[in-house]
Specification:
mainly beta; Lipocalin; ten-stranded antiparallel barrel; globular
């Protein structure tokens, strides 16, 4: 009888732990590091011209952040999540031209910085990485920059720079 009671108590404890983990597993401060990007945004280039719109929201009980980008000739979607197994942020981006990015990184000094694995240029067989950086600015806007880096980490090119301003 004592063994049955112990087994019953263990089952209740495990069930409660599982429920608490399932309900609160994505509520940690690490999971909230990219929250500054959530919302509905108009996006402007450095010259102040509107170049697109972006909507970023939660899915899967706040365990996944989905981005939906719309510009004049381009649409794209990304899925972003924090992986507690390796303490990293991850993004998968796919757009309507077939461009896709797989990025990994983290939050540091007020910036979310994600990079691709080392890739090989089809043009000249050199190695490079994509790096995307999001930074919350003092005025509430978010600056997103997309850089191409050499294998050694040197900036080769800035592909995109956009200032996200919350829709009114």
């Amino acid at each position: 009888m004592k063994n049955i009671v112990c087994l019953f108590m263990l089952c209740i404890t495990l069930t409660h732990s599982f429920r608490m983990n399932a309900q609160g597993s994505c509520k940690t401060s690490k999971h909230r590091q990219f929250d500054f990007w959530l919302g509905r945004w108009d996006v402007f280039n450095p010259e102040g011209k509107k170049i697109g719109e972006n909507t970023i929201h939660y899915l899967q009980d706040s365990c996944l952040i989905q981005e939906n980008w719309i510009a004049s000739q381009q649409t794209g979607t990304s899925y972003n999540y924090y992986d507690s197994n390796d303490d990293s942020w991850n993004q998968l981006w796919v757009d309507n031209t077939g461009t896709n990015l797989v990025l990994k990184g983290g939050y540091s000094d007020g910036k979310m910085i994600l990079q691709s694995e080392l890739l090989t240029s089809k043009r000249d067989k050199s190695y490079y990485r994509n790096q995307l950086v999001w930074e919350l600015l003092a005025d509430g806007r978010v600056l997103q920059s997309w850089h191409i880096l050499s294998a050694e980490g040197k900036l080769l090119q800035t592909v995109f720079q956009g200032y996200y301003q919350k829709k009114k």
